[in-house]
Every structure is written in structure tokens, then in C-alpha cells.
């Protein structure tokens, strides 16, 4: 039992470092795109959406890491920035995301895109497996979720600071201005990544 707990903790650390590092910029940018529409007071909705994202990528990660599903790495690397662009554009085009219907919609949206991101993690995690799959997979997912929560906290602090600056200049439409500006910047960066990674 101690060795299993140690293994779980080790893979949790690997998962945390894998998502909360400079090498995971596409994942961090996607989380920032998800968080861009929320204020500090909406933290429960934001956490729910990030957890839905974790569930989505956990499904594909499990299928891919156990060889039930194999997807071309080039296609996944292209689709990941596409999900970021789609999220950022959705932020710009739609306004109601925090109400009851909007929160459910956003969670489904994040869960579906999580399926793509999970396939991106799979090759990395598959290389770490030795005999058992369940404990490493669980530990890795726990680490990813903890890393995402840490990133969400940092994103919330950043977005709150932006809101504070914008509200001093203009209280009317400050939130909308922030959502559009942050989402547009994210869309430009991710759009460039998508062009660079295009498989054709």
C-alpha cells in the first residue's frame, strides 16, 4: 500500500509539472481562454468548467494511453490550438456564460475540447507506463487537475487586476472590453500555432 501511495503521489507530481510548466503553454492558454469570461465572484462556475475539461481529457487520455484509441500526433497538435481559437472566438461572440444555461453550455464545451487535449497528453504518459495503468493514470489526472486549479487561480488574479485598471478608466463595459481584448490576443497566438502545426 505505501508503494502504491508513493506511485500515485509521483504521478500526481508529474501531472502537475506537465501542465504547469513553460512547455505547456498551449494548455495554459486554453485555460486562460476558458477563464477569460469570469470574474472572481464566478469562481465556482470557472472551477466547474475546468473540472469538466479534466473529465473530458481523462477519458481520451485513458483510451489513448491504454492503446484502445490511437490518433495521429500531428493531427492532435493541430487541433489543440484550434480548440483555443474556438474558445476565444466563442468568448467574443457570446455574452451569457455565467447564468445557469451558460454555465452548463460552457462545461459541455470544455469537456468536448478536453477530449482533444487528452490525446495530446497520451503519448507522453504512455511512455511512463511499466506494468500497471490505473494508478499512474489516476495520479497523473489528479496532478493535472491540481495544476489547472493553480493556473486558474493565477489567471483569476491577472484578470482581476486587468478589471481593476479598466474600471478606473471606464466602468461602462469594462468587463466586456477585457473579455474581448484578452480573447482576441489568445486567438491571435493560437491561430499562429495552428498555422505552424497544420498537417498539410
Topology:
Blueprint: H1 2-19, H2 25-35, H3 43-65, H4 73-93, H5 100-126, H6 134-169, H7 174-197
Helix pairs in contact: 1-6, 2-4, 2-6, 2-7, 3-5, 3-6, 4-5, 4-7, 6-7
What does this protein structure show overall?
The structure is a single chain. With 200 residues, the protein is mainly α. The protein has one domain (2-197). Helices cover 80% and strands 0% of the residues. It is built from 7 helices and no strands. It has helices at residues 2-19, 25-35, 43-65, 73-93, 100-126, 134-169, 174-197. Helix 2 runs antiparallel to helix 7. It is globular. The relative contact order is 0.21.
Characteristics:
mainly alpha; single chain
What is shown here, in short?
The protein is mostly helical and 200 residues long. It has seven helices and no strands. α2 (25-35) runs antiparallel to α7, α3 (43-65) packs parallel to α5 and α3 (43-65) runs antiparallel to α6 (134-169).
Q: Main beta sheet: strand number and arrangement?
A: none
How big a fraction of the residues is strand? under 5%
**Would you count the extended β strands for me?**
0
Cα(first) to Cα(last) distance is 49 Å
Helix segment count?
7
Stretches where pLDDT is under 50 for at least 5 consecutive residues are none
* Helix share, percent: over 70%
| Content-based structural category | mainly alpha
Secondary-structure element pattern, one letter each: HHHHHHH
Name the overall outline.
Answer: globular
C-alpha Rg (nearest Å): 17 Å
Overall mean pLDDT score? 86
Number of domains: 1
